């Protein structure tokens, strides 16, 4: 039997995640990864082409921390998608300082496999094919966007700096604190998906004004 390599790809990626979690993406370098692992930096090139490849593998590990979902219950694909998005968002925010890294280096092949699985499940639950990719892409973008806002310290529905610009009831609602990041995310996602479900039979996106863009 051959000797197990001193450096494992998974260990390198996990070390990268640890460094970014501690000090942010700007602190990551091949030298720092190597020092923490007790190896020489050039030896990392035996396993990764460059730093970008390490970032992609680190992003993949974080995405894969999302808990597995069960089956759709009673055809309620909206709740199934919301629960999955909440779980994915939670996995991202468990590594809040790494969220920008995940967004920039999201593993495309993994994303396509996830999209394909979601489309099959939506199809099994009666969602028209014309709606499926709109749904899964919208859910993904909303989840990523919400995670980015929460990770970078942009609070949801915070009281305005210039309250005189708003109706007093709007200000009172914002000051009530009822719109947390988590609650806003779930409410916005459900509003979108419930609207799509209510419009079955009319493919979404038809007649949408894109301002002249395709």
TrEMBL record:
<feature type="DNA-binding region" description="H-T-H motif">
    <location>
        <begin position="29"/>
        <end position="48"/>
    </location>
</feature>
<dbReference type="InterPro" id="IPR050109">
    <property type="entry name" value="HTH-type_TetR-like_transc_reg"/>
</dbReference>
<keyword id="KW-0805">Transcription regulation</keyword>
<dbReference type="InterPro" id="IPR036271">
    <property type="entry name" value="Tet_transcr_reg_TetR-rel_C_sf"/>
</dbReference>
<protein>
    <submittedName>
        <fullName>AcrR family transcriptional regulator</fullName>
    </submittedName>
</protein>
<dbReference type="GO" id="GO:0046677">
    <property type="term" value="P:response to antibiotic"/>
</dbReference>
<dbReference type="GO" id="GO:0003700">
    <property type="term" value="F:DNA-binding transcription factor activity"/>
</dbReference>
<dbReference type="InterPro" id="IPR001647">
    <property type="entry name" value="HTH_TetR"/>
</dbReference>
<dbReference type="InterPro" id="IPR003012">
    <property type="entry name" value="Tet_transcr_reg_TetR"/>
</dbReference>
<dbReference type="Pfam" id="PF00440">
    <property type="entry name" value="TetR_N"/>
</dbReference>
<dbReference type="GO" id="GO:0045892">
    <property type="term" value="P:negative regulation of DNA-templated transcription"/>
</dbReference>
<keyword id="KW-0238">DNA-binding</keyword>
<keyword id="KW-0804">Transcription</keyword>
<dbReference type="GO" id="GO:0000976">
    <property type="term" value="F:transcription cis-regulatory region binding"/>
</dbReference>
<dbReference type="InterPro" id="IPR009057">
    <property type="entry name" value="Homeodomain-like_sf"/>
</dbReference>
<feature type="domain" description="HTH tetR-type">
    <location>
        <begin position="6"/>
        <end position="66"/>
    </location>
</feature>
